[in-house]
């Protein structure tokens, strides 16, 4: 079942890349059944099973079918990658991008320089936005470079999935969440394409040559010092900014629920102090940073007025300050809402 799921995902991934074409899996399955008696018998048995036990499955529920005394049958799954023949890729419209990179089979080699290149390309995607590396797909020469030209199969007896995993494991810190999908081709029993699914890293990852890279347009390029520091902050920056957003949303409630002389609590600023202490605020886009600063300047002023109002002597002293208190608290609203809106958008893009 694990293999079926992986193969299905690989087929799905290739279909996404070639979404402008119709899937030819049904036609290919029909041809395969005609030429292979074993496959044909399996398909007929599966159809017969469904016709015979359809009512039992529906009444028992698919999850309880196994315990309902029904027989178990293995249903054959046919996976077909979309290409005109064993070498020519149908769709030449999907260009390489920040999250997609094609690599010919020659990119996999046991020479140290090739191993370094593999870790460079994988770490670059982790340091950027994640994505897919497809090993076994050659590109057109200029001026159509960066477009897939043809399937360029990998011999899995020479370069196994485990070997590729071992090479990738040389990245530091060791990456988590990378999945390698092995897609078999009809050009031979050992012909495959490796689709490497790469998540966005939580910190900066270093290649085997002890350098840091990022994806820029169609390439993996070295990162500047400030870029490395910025990516290294991801692990603490994301929860810190989410905490700041929650604090601003709480402060918005405090401001909107204030009425007359009833004061529930002061505005909070602990998360704001935290992002300053961690150096996160200084690395934010200028517009976002300005809106956050403006919101907390309003919050600081409101807290100052609230403290003075609470310390005022006698009822008359508080009554005299009431209009100032109300005006100051209400003034925080637009600034807080503007900061929340900008920060929420930034946090969603950063996930």
Protein model, in words:
The strands form three sheets. Strands 1, 2, 5, 6 and 7 form a five-stranded mixed β-sheet that branches. Strands 3-4 form a two-stranded antiparallel ribbon. The chain has a two-stranded antiparallel sheet with strand order 8-9. It has ten helices and nine strands. The chain is of the alpha+beta class. It is 50% helix and 11% strand. It folds into three domains: 2-68, no CATH class; 100-223, Schlafen, AAA domain (Methyltransferase, Cobalt-precorrin-4 Transmethylase, Domain 2, 2-Layer Sandwich); 234-350, Up-down Bundle (Single alpha-helices involved in coiled-coils or other helix-helix interfaces), CATH 1.20.5. α2 (25-35) crosses α3 (37-60). The two termini are 31 Å apart. The model is unreliable at 1-23, 62-67 and 73-92 (pLDDT under 50). It has helices at 2-17, 25-35, 37-60, 112-127, 161-168, 225-232, 234-256, 270-277, 286-311, 314-350; strands spanning 100-103, 131-135, 137-139, 148-151, 154-155, 179-184, 191-198, 213-216, 219-222.
